[in-house]
Amino acid sequence: MGWEIARDAEFDEIVHPGTAAASAEHDYTVKVDARGLSDGQRYFYRFRSANRTSPVGTTRTLPSS
Description:
Layout: E1 2-6, E2 14-19, E3 42-49, E4 52-53, E5 57-60
């Protein structure tokens, strides 16, 4: 399964792509630990598997202290 994090909802500016495998050992779930994102920014994410793409989600990183 692939995942992508982007600065925009259209995924024109992908900043962090990756892959992960879901298994029975972990209840077929995937945990993504994306590092190197900028402080205080809004990001969009999605997952891709078997020629299908998930709905787009959004998150925000914490501001710098």
